[in-house]
Amino acid sequence: MVNIHFLFISGTEITFIMFIVVLVFGADKIPSIAKGLGKGMRSLKDATNDIKLEIQKSADKNGIDSSLSKEVNEEINKVKDGIKDLTGSVKRNL
Q1: pLDDT of residue 60
Q2: 3-state DSSP helix/strand/coil percent for the chain, to nearest 5?
């Protein structure tokens, strides 16, 4: 038996939540809801990237040293790569 844990939620709990979602929204509405959530997440990501770009442009225009933000971004990317490595091995083991 395989135990699946995602954010401290077991496979049984995920299955129960999916069952409730199907009961509440119906099977025919779930793809459109997922599509809407995906579009919303994409627009949020685009807005965040636009804000980052504007802040970077403003910092460059005013002569503010942005090396600290670059260092923070590098550290964030290292953590992301570590998480990808971890989730990749978890996905392969399932």
Answers
A1: 81
A2: 80, 5, 15
pLDDT tens, 25-69? 888 888 888 899 899 999 999 999 899 889 888 888 887 776 667
Report which residue type is found at 13: E
Residues 54, 22: Cα–Cα separation, whole Å:
42
Distance CA 23, CA 17 (A): 10
Beta strands in 2-85 (DSSP E): 5-6, 9-10
Whether the CB-CB separation of 94 and 2 falls below 8 Å is answered with yes
